[in-house]
Amino acid sequence: xxxxxxxxxxxxxxxxxxxxxxxxxxxxxxxxxxxxxxxxxxxxxxxxxxxxxxxxxxxxxxxxxxxxxxxxxxxxxxxxxxxxxxxxxxxxxxxxxxxxxxxxxxxxxxxxxxxxxxxxxxxxxxxxxxxxxxxxxxxxxxxxxxxxxxxxxxxxxxxxxxxxxxxxxxxxxxxxxxxxxxxxxxxxxxxxxxxxxxxxxxxxxxxxxxxxxxxxxxxxxxxxxxxxxxxxxxxxxxxxxxxxxxxxxxxxxxxxxxxxxxxxxxxxxxxxxxxxxxxxxxxxxxxxxxxxxxxxxxxxxxxxxxxxxxxxxxxxxxxxxxxxxxxxxxxxxxxxxxxxxxxxxxxxxxxxxxxxxxxxxxxxxxxxxxxxxxxxxxxxxxxxxxxxxxxxxxxxxxxxxxxxxxxxxxxxxxxxxxxxxxxxxxxxxxxxxxxxxxxxxxxxxxxxxxxxxxxxxxxxxxxxxxxxxxxxxxxxxxxxxxxxxxxxxxxxxxxxxxxxxxxxxxxxxxxxxxxxxxxxxxxxxxxxxxxxxxxxxxxxxxxxxxxxxxxxxxxxxxxxxxxxxxxxxxxxxxxxxxxxxxxxxxxxxxxxxxxxxxxxxxxxxxxxxxxxxxxxxxxxxxxxxxxxxxxxxxxxxxxxxxxxxxxxxxxxxxxxxxxxxxxxxxxxxxxxxxxxxxxxxxxxxxxxxxxxxxxxxxxxxxxxxxxxxxxx
Length: 712
Known about the structure:
Layout lengths: L13 E2 L23 H5 L11 H11 L6 H14 L12 H13 L3 H8 L3 H4 L4 H8 L1 H14 L9 H12 L2 H16 L6 H21 L3 H15 L1 H12 L4 H18 L4 E7 L2 H11 L8 E7 L2 H14 L1 E2 L5 E2 L12 E6 L5 E8 H9 L32 H9 L6 H13 L3 E6 L4 E5 L4 H9 L6 E6 L2 E3 L10 E6 L11 H4 L3 H13 L15 E4 L8 E3 L9 E3 L11 E5 L5 E5 L3 H8 L4 E2 L1 E3 L5 E10 L4 H11 L3 E7 L6 E10 L5 H9 L4 E6 L9
Parallel strand pairs: 3-7, 8-12, 15-17
Antiparallel strand pairs: 1-2, 2-3, 4-6, 5-6, 6-7, 8-9, 10-11, 10-12, 13-21, 14-19, 16-17, 16-18, 20-22, 20-23, 21-22
Helix pairs in contact: 2-4, 3-5, 4-5, 4-10, 5-8, 7-8, 8-9, 8-10, 9-19, 10-11, 10-12, 11-12, 12-13, 13-15, 18-22, 20-22
């Protein structure tokens, strides 16, 4: 089974002002074809009773990525591994040394650095031979020993349904401190999957399911697409043999697919050359699983559906130049555009995705990236070398004494895993949360108010964002602003949203049980559950009926004096309307109502328009000479303890008396407080409203604009 679904296509072209003419027969490596690195590539021509010096193939692949690499250590590791495994054979009948060699060669082709390759050669020696970890440390250094020990521990883990969760948790956390351990394990599993045919069918199925459920998601999150795609095809053939055969037959029956894409590639190359943009245009065939998914999505496939175009350039800016030229010279399919350069995916992946339509209607998907982006897209963290900071004065071969490793390249999901596992004492909860996290195959990026970013699974809410950004401090989150608008914590976030979390300074605040209904990430769910278990008094049973509004009535002194130009109006019968509560120096108008009294509204009040439509004639009104006034203010806030007390204290601090107060029951964590207030001077209203807005949790204070209860 090939990792590539289609035969290689004449796919490469260098374009640009000084590019040579295209040679259509020149082969292109659009994707690392790890499958071709089989036993023949490892052992070469053999002589009877003797293994060849296969390490030469590894050295050649390693030098292609690291021209100045020290190969002596690889040869020493090979000698130790070959002598230790001598006499051991795989179930296929091959000498056992072919397995560590294959694993090492896979990693060498991906661009792994020398330390990783050394550990890959020795990864089974401590487990299966007389070699000890101390011997490895003495001969190759503590860094290699650390990696070998990590892989050895992972070998002891049963990933199946009967796995002991606590064992898996300890092993994954121990090895999670160094992503190179996982890289070696993935290469190890890939070679084992290639040779799975010698095992019983039921065992093949069991191993394939474990690979699908755990190791392929790990490969995706580590960004090692070259490993992931071949593992997917191998699993596909075992678990879905009929669909696999149908896909294989579909590919075999479309031998002209490469020509269709090559024709579009010619047009793209010509357009970029004319625009003076230096680039390589490659045809990238789809692997089996990718073809199967496209067929399910689109139904009948055209020749251009069996692959994608890959455009490689030198600089980030060139990516956008290529994009602009493609969208100018071809018809773009706008819905297919994605920018993973400005917002990289959670597994370090960067690229521009688009699709263009050729004159004959064929649509070709196009990936645009730099050469470095392509290297990382194929090999993920393997291509990043040794990302760990050596101790001060060290040579990079010894780990820090405290075991802590500074890893600026570690994917965000892995950092989150190592963080939230510490808060999960229950291994079963950890195992369940881990499998749920691995099952999430999509992630969104949201922007923080300070310009940073958060990587969250698709469907995450503001609750998840709060715990991802603030950790335990998120217990005091009151709400959020999403794209500048106020939002509840239950709001589901979309890719590219900007979220600002609003926190209270009250250290006694905590989450409510309802937050669990909106939490998608393990970190949020675990933190909320832990807080609720530690504060059982904060968990109250829901009330059967909604609470009625709470009203408080105090002194009812008169407000500012009003006068109406209406002969015969009874004394004291000119009053401010409750719907808009005008105060000096608001522009006002009045209307006479039943009983002869006059109700005064602000000019902009909605009731003014309603009265005029009813044919009511306005009455000229004016303010008296007193500065005292009465006003109704509405404070909207996120619910929290002591909110009413703090608002009342802020009002009293401005020298204002509360005439009445109404507190509505919470709705989606929001509450509305309505205050009728007596101000000694209308000029103090702006300062009063600012003081109320400064109360923690209050996000808006406004003048009342309730519909009038028309006795008019």
